Amino acid sequence: MKRIEQLIDRIIDRVNINLREPAFDVGPYVRGLIPVEQFERFYAFYGLSPHHPLHFHFRGSSLAGSYFLGKCIVEHSVLYKSDIRGDELKMRGDVLCHKGLQVPLHDDEVIRIKDGFLVKTLVHNYSHDPENPEEFLIQNTVSLHYANIHGAPVEGSFLGPFATVDLTTVHDCVIGPFAYVQVGELAHREVEPGTIWIRSDGDFDFRYRFPDTVLKRYVNALSGRNPEGVLMDFVEARKEDFQEVFDGAVRRPPRIDVPPGAALSRYAVVRGDTEIAENVLVAQRAYLEDAYLGKGANAQENCYIIRSRLQGWNVTAHGGKIIHAVLGPKVFVGFNAFLRASEDCPLKIGEGSIVMPHTVVDLEEPVDIPPGRLVWGYVSRRADLEHQSLALEDLSRVEGLMEKGAMRFEGNGARFVEAFRHRIEHILEANGAYFDGTNNVGHAQKGQNISFNIMQPYPEGEMQGLYPTIDIRP
Amino acid sequence: MKRIEQLIDRIIDRVNINLREPAFDVGPYVRGLIPVEQFERFYAFYGLSPHHPLHFHFRGSSLAGSYFLGKCIVEHSVLYKSDIRGDELKMRGDVLCHKGLQVPLHDDEVIRIKDGFLVKTLVHNYSHDPENPEEFLIQNTVSLHYANIHGAPVEGSFLGPFATVDLTTVHDCVIGPFAYVQVGELAHREVEPGTIWIRSDGDFDFRYRFPDTVLKRYVNALSGRNPEGVLMDFVEARKEDFQEVFDGAVRRPPRIDVPPGAALSRYAVVRGDTEIAENVLVAQRAYLEDAYLGKGANAQENCYIIRSRLQGWNVTAHGGKIIHAVLGPKVFVGFNAFLRASEDCPLKIGEGSIVMPHTVVDLEEPVDIPPGRLVWGYVSRRADLEHQSLALEDLSRVEGLMEKGAMRFEGNGARFVEAFRHRIEHILEANGAYFDGTNNVGHAQKGQNISFNIMQPYPEGEMQGLYPTIDIRP
């Protein structure tokens, strides 16, 4: 048996030990999912720039097709086409404020992955966890296709495909496919597939769950093989386009104009008649086709913007997909949201609207979402908006319980809206959307001139598919 | 001033301190030679395979376009398109025999480059130095285009373009352009340009020096800019072909049949109607065009074999160039030899002949070198063979002094011939030329399935062109 097979078995055992209470066996989801030869076929990358902290340490792991930036330690883990980004890591001396307490950091934050099996998972830094501000730990965890682990330390858990854990400490949990949790802390829980759950203790609790029939059509998790459904079909159909940008070792100039204050990763796919305005940030692994991104818009990793116009200061979060839509200024599209319109059935979303993470808008008729709305769930016709959207203004007035269709909100609506808006403003600021030529410098201006460096596994022998021990520092 | 400029200045000062006795200033050869932007334009590689030892450690250095295999430590150095190979490094527990003494190695051998500036230089392992068998040190040294440092620890020295130091410990020396030394040990000496010097203390001493007019035509070293001459023109004209094999990050299948026991590096350039037989080894950065390599032939790095037939068990050493020639079995072509014939003026070399390192055969008429000859110096017509070649059999009978043209031999001819033949046999064996399907396994059979991994420097900022600290182990 190859060493990589032993490693995978050991990871399965470790996760199962953690999940012995709900008695969940991750084995069937992991074994046979990726043929051993595949681990050897791809190469991994690390990014190098003067604008990001730097420390990589890889040991006893397979990193096939994965990408790393910042400070990342990976031990005894299998990362398959994952994306581990530390470009907003907290720094030594920073002070983390949490409920009035001030925690100064005695070290730079580092992403540490140990005994994990992550498939096509995006890990983003700045762990929200006030208990361990210097280490963003992912341990004894299996996470499947297009899951997002966003500022969320995860231990002993299973994340289904397209699941997102956002600013949440997760301990011994099963997060079902396409479920989204942003709840601060979660232990020994099974979150059902297609659940959208946002909670701030004492403030509010937002929950929605997709109907099973809809969920299966869009994300159908299967043990022992790739997930199926509309979302997988969509990304798989565009896989080849990324191959071409990553195959070349050398840099190429961007294929479109990059105006002042804007940044376009050369590892983004840019096709057709695409235009970006000032202060736009297009991350690596973003996909733009016949797209217009207005001033200060940002397109995050794994997002797709196709035949669409974003009028400015728009956030398209990790994994967000926008096809044939016109989005007014400051429209926010959350993680893994899927907005698919067409020439016959176009989509318009008015200024300042918030499309919740994991929302599916897949149109059978033209739909026009007015400004200032919160949208969630599944929308295919105008009538669906009745139960799947709400004016932010109305939500702000809610105090106590409110139900709308399958959505249940409890708590202070104003705080919910305020928290969301605050976060959107933070994202825009951090990415440089408000740069005026001198002030408000963000990621777009700091330069995305990152060199991408290739690492490959042992090509044959017992260690085939595993990487050597690599340590990289400034 | 960028950090890389400071580094180059410091290296110049260190080399000059070592060379204060002959008062040689390397500054003019180094300053301005490579524009600072160039260091940032290229990426470096390291090779990974289960068949080679592994430890890379890079610190405070620029490695632009360089390649590493085995165990290599580089500190405070500038390696520009150099090739540092440790694929035959001595191993812990090996016993180095030297003049009856047995030195067991307490550690694996490692190539260590410190405060060096090497341009397009090939460094090959297995340091012959019995005093430091575990460390092959190159320190306080400047070495220019297409120089070879072959098993030769070098300290405080300057090597001109196309110079070769072979199995020689070099201390505070200036080795002129296109000079070749294989003399065991050398200190505080200036070796004149175009000198070929092979000495084994108490056994023999072979010397030849190219006429200045010929030398300048083939290798003309200039301070502050690239060398000129036929050899530079030749390699520069084929530079683009290498770019294409190194640009792609992924492996491609070889473009020609690779028969049993043979190995063809996928980082070799193979063009036209080229064929290789069993047990052939074609190294990375070898260039084959309309070439036939018979059984057990090997083509080493930086060699070029064009429109030529090598009938078997041929060695084409590092930097050897063969154009339009037919070479009988066991013909040996030494380092940086340049054999250029043409359709009208073809070259034939008979079985078992030895073309000395740094020999120039550049034909104005057809030339047929009989079997069993030693060839050196500059040959353009048949008549030149009179003073530039000798039957090995005749040389074997020499005892004492013998002069032929500009060549001067002193000592025991039989020992010289025997030493040469012994080395050729060793090269053939080590490379797997005598593999019979079971026994005599060499490099060709051990597999050249090496993965090539890219490293890039900081793309901008103060550290532009310098690489981070990188440590890679099994």
Q: What structural keywords apply?
A:
homodimer; 474 residues; alpha/beta; UDP N-Acetylglucosamine Acyltransferase, domain 1; 2 domains; twelve-stranded mixed β-sheet; 10 helices; 47 strands; 17% helix; 35% strand; globular; transferase activity (chains A, B); Trimer_LpxA-like_sf (chains A, B); Hexapep_loop (chains A, B); transferase (chains A, B); Transferase (chains A, B)
Helix tally of chain A equals: 10
What is the radius of gyration of chain A?
A: 21 Å
Q: pLDDT below 50 for ≥5 consecutive residues: which ranges of chain A?
A: none
Q: What's the mean pLDDT score of chain A?
A: 93
Organism (chains A, B): Desulfoglaeba alkanexedens ALDC
GO molecular function, one term (chains A, B): transferase activity
InterPro entries (chains A, B): Hexapep_loop, Trimer_LpxA-like_sf
Pfam family, one (chains A, B): Hexapep_loop
Q: Can you walk me through this structure?
A:
The structure is a homodimer of 474-residue chains. The longest helix of chain A has 18 residues, at 413-430. Chain A folds into two domains: 3-191 and 209-233 and 450-472, Hexapeptide repeat proteins (UDP N-Acetylglucosamine Acyltransferase, domain 1), CATH 2.160.10; 238-389 and 427-445, UDP N-Acetylglucosamine Acyltransferase, domain 1. Chain A contains ten helices and 47 strands. Chain A starts with a helix and ends with a strand. Chains A and B meet through strand 46 and strand 47 of A and strand 44 and strand 45 of B. Strand 47 of chain A pairs antiparallel with strand 45 (469-473) of chain B, so a sheet runs across the interface.
